[in-house]
Fold each of these.
Amino acid sequence: MTQRKIIHIDMDAFYASVEQRDHPEYRGRPIAVGHDGPRGVVATASYEARPYGVRSAISSALAKRLCPNLIFVPARFDVYKEVSRQIRAVFRDYTELVEPLSLDEAFLDVTHLRSATLAAREIKARILAETGLTASAGISVNKMLAKIASDYRKPDGLFTIPPGQIEEFVAALPIERFFGIGEVTARKMHGMGIHTGADLRLRDEAELVRHFGKAGHSYYGYARGIDEREVTPNRIRKSLGAETTFAEDTDDREQLRLELSAVREEVWNRLMRHEFKGKTVVLKLKFDNFRQITRSKTLFAPVNSAETLRQVSEELLAADPPDRPYGRQFARSLHRVRAAAIRFRGIRPERLNDFSHDRRQHGKGKDDNCLKRDRLWGAKPLPDHRVFSNLREISQAPRTGRTIARRRVAA
Ligand code: TTP
Ligand code: MG
C-alpha cells in the first residue's frame, strides 16, 4: 500500500486575524472576538491577547480580568464564511479530497503529489496572497499526525513529520495533544498513569479496549503513529453542542436562565463555525444527585438565528410548572442543577415519527399526565407556529442504566 500524504491547514487566530485585517487600528493589539456583556463568551483572541491567557470559549468577564486592555470586537460570520470559501477554493486546486473540519481548517489528501511539503508551502502563500491572512500547515502520513504538526509551529507555521521520525515524535507527545483523544478520555488516561505517547505504547490492546471500548483499538494505533482514518469530503456531522458545569449548584430559575445564555452563545459560535444545520434543539440539565433530564424540540427548518435559538432554549427551560421545580418528578427531594448543556441534532425525516414505540413501552397513563401538564404549563409556541414540537424528558439513573422516556407531540 502506498503511504498517504496528508496536509492539515488551520488559519491563525482566524476571526481575530480577519478583524485585524479589516480594521488596521486593531493590528498589534490584544483583541477578542465576541461580545462584552456579562454573559458573553470569547470566540477567539488575537495572538497579542494570548499571553494573558485569553482564549476561545472563556467568558468575556474572565477575559477582561486577565487582560484589562482587551478590545472586544463583534463577530462577522458572513465575512468569515467568505474567507472560508476562498481558502477551500485554493485547497481544491490541489486535490478533490478536501475534508473541512470547520470554517478555518481542513485535511487534504495529496498522496498523488510529489511533495506534500512543497504543496503546503504553496497553499500557505496563495492563502496569504488571496486573503491577506496567514495559515499554519502540518504534513505527515495520516490525519492525526498532520493535525498535530499544524499546531506545532503556530502562527504562520509549517511542520512536517516524516515517516522516519514518527515514533520518536509520538513517544514524547502529551496524551491530550493526540487528535482523536478528547478531554474526558485524556483525564481518564491520566488517572491510569498514561501521560505521553510512550506511556500509552506500554499498554496492550486488550487493556485499552477494556477501558475505552472499541476506541481502544484506535488508541493502540495512535501510540504507534498509526491512524487509518481517511480524508472524507462532505462528512456529515450528526450533532454539536456545548455544556457548562456551574461554579455552584443552583435551583434558582433566573440564575439558570443566565447561565444558559452563555452556553447558548458558545453553541451558536460552534454552529456558525461548523456551518451546522440543526433542526432539533436539546436541553440537558444535570442534577447534584447525578440524574439528568433531557428535553428537545424539533423545528421544521434548521435554526437560522441566534434569536430563534434563544426562544427555543428558554421555552425548553420553562417547560416545568412553577410549583414543580426541576427534577422533582425524578427525585424524592428537590435537587439542585449542577450542569446545563445545549445540543443541536441534525434529524432525518424518518426519526420524526418514532413516538408510537415510547407510548407502548411506557403506558398511556404517563403520556396523559404529560399532556395535561404541557397544556397547563407547556411551552409557548414560536410566533410563526412553524414548530414541530417534540417535548421529551429522559431521566437517567446512570448506576442502573435505566432510562425512562416520555414523549409527546404537540401540533
Ligand atoms: P481555531 O482554529 O481553534 O482557533 P483560531 O484559528 O482562532 O486560533 P489558532 O491560531 O490557534 O488556530 O478556531 C477557528 C475559529 O473558530 C476561531 O477563530 C473562532 C472559532 N471558534 C469559536 O467560535 N469557538 C471555539 O470554541 C473555538 C475553539 C473556535
Ligand atoms: Mg485556527
Note: The longest strand covers residues 239-250.
Amino acid sequence: MAKYLNYINGKWISASTGRFFNDINPATQEIVGEFPSSGPDDVDEAASAAKKAFASWRKMPAPKRGEILYKAGKLLIERKEELAKTITLEMGKVLTEARGDVQEAIDTAFYCAGEGRRLFGITTPSELANKSAMTVRAPIGVCAVITPWNFPVAIPSWKIFPAILSGNTVVFKSASDTPLCAAEFVKILEESGVPAGVVNLVHGSGSETGNPLIEHKDVNLISFTGSTEVGRNIAASCGKSLKRVSLELGGKNAQIVMDDADMPLAVKAAVWGAFATSGQRCTATSRLILHKDIKKGFLRKFFESVFGLKIGTGLEKGVDMGPLVNEARRKSVAGYVQAGLDEGAELLCGGKSYTKGNCKNGFFFEPTVFDGVTPEMRIAREEIFGPVVSILTVNSLDEAIATANNTSYGLSSSIFTTNINKAFSAIENIDCGIIYVNSSTIGAENHLPFGGYKNSGNGHREAGTAVFDIYTEIKTVYIDYSGALQRAQIDL
Ligand code: NAP
Ligand code: MG
C-alpha cells in the first residue's frame, strides 16, 4: 500500500507520530493510500518553516509571485484529467464534475496570477493642501488553511493562491477524506517554483492536527471552509487570540419556482442543484419552494428526471450521481430521512442506501424527495449535505421570499420567474450572499465574491477582489509635503 508524507520546508517527510490513517475510495471501500497522522510537533515544524519563509517571500514583488502562479495554472491544465480521476477516486463525485473542480483551480490560478500586477489600494485627495493620501496592501504572515473534502482541489486553490500571491506563507491541513488531492496540488506548487517553506502540508484529523494549528502562536490568520459547528469553535478560539479568521460554512439553499417560471428549465436546475455531487455542496438546493399553482405540473416533470438519474461509480460513463463521501455521512443522511418521517413529512421517493450492481460496497444513497415539509421541521432547517430535497408550498412571492429567508443560513438561493419585477424583488429581499435568477443555486465563478449571510460565514467573501481583503492588511499612508505641521480637522 502506497504510504504518503507531509511536505514541510520543501521536503516530503514523515510525521513525528509514526502513525498513518487510511484514505478510502467511497465507491468501493478500497484503500487509496496511507497518510501520516500528524501531531502538534509536525504542526510546529510546519508553522516554523512558514514563519521563516515569510521573511523573504514577502519581499518578492507581487508580479513575480504571480508568475509562479501562472506556472501552477499551466501544470494544472496538463494534469487536469489525472487530477480529476484522483478526485473521483478519493471522494466519489462523477468525473465530469471532478474536471470542473480542477477547472476552478485553473481559473483561480490565472485570476490570482493577474492580480499580482494589480493588488490595488486607493489614492484619494487629502482634505489639506500639499498632502497626499493612499492605501497599500501588506501581507499578514502565516496562514492556516483548513479545507473540506467536497471540492478537494478548488477550495485549497481558492485559499492558497490568493494567500501566497499577497505575500503570505501557508500551513495547509488537508481534509482526512481527500489527502491525495491535497498532496497532488502541493506537488504542483512545488514544481511551479514555490520556494521551500512558503506552502507546507500536514495531513491528519481535525482534532489532532487542525486544533494545534489553529492554536499555534506563529499562525496569524485562519482560513476555514467546513461545517458551521467547527467554524464556530474556530471563531471562539480566534476571539481569544484575535487572529484574523475567515469562515465559509454551511447552507440551506432554496430554489423558488414561481407560477410564471420557465418550467422545463426550473426542473432541470432543481435536479442539478439538489443531486449534483450527491447533494454534498455548500450551495446544494436543499429546499424547493414551489408556487401552489405550478406544483403538480412541476413535480410530474421533476420525477421523470429524478427517476432517470443513474447512480454508480464516478468513473463510469453516463453516471449522474456517485456515492456519499463516507459511512458517517451516509448514516447522517439516513438519520435526516428518519427525522423527516418522524416529524410527519411525506417521503415521495428514495430514502435509503443504494446497493444495486457494483454499488454494493460503496456509500451510495438514493435521490430522496420529501413533500409536505413545514419550516419548523429539521429537514427544512438543518443542512443535510446529501441527496435529499424538501418541498415547501407557497401562495405568493412574498411568502416564497419569507420562506427562503426562514433559516439560520444565507449562502445561496435561486428564483425562477419570467417577471422582471419579481426577480428584482427577490434580489432585494432574499438574505443570501448568492442569488441566482433563472438558474440553479450551485455554481460559482472565481472572479466574483463568494460567501454567505448569517451562519454561512463570518462576513468575509472569498474569490473576486474581495478575497484580497482577507489576506492583506491595509496600510493608510499620508504624505505631507507642506513643510509645516498641518493638523487634520483643526487647520481647515
Ligand atoms: P468539517 O467537518 O467542518 O471539516 C472541515 C475541515 O475542518 C476538515 O479539514 C476537518 O478535518 C477540519 N476539522 C474538523 N474538526 C476540526 C477541529 N476541531 N479543528 C480544526 N479543524 C477541524 O466539514 P466537512 O464535513 O468536511 O465538510 C462539509 C461542510 O463544509 C458542510 O457544512 C458544507 O456546507 C461546508 N462547506 C462550505 C463551503 C463554503 O464555501 N461555504 C464549501 C464547501 C463545504 P477532518 O477532515 O480531519 O475532519
Ligand atoms: Mg475518501
Note: The CA atoms of residues 38 and 204 lie 5 Å apart.
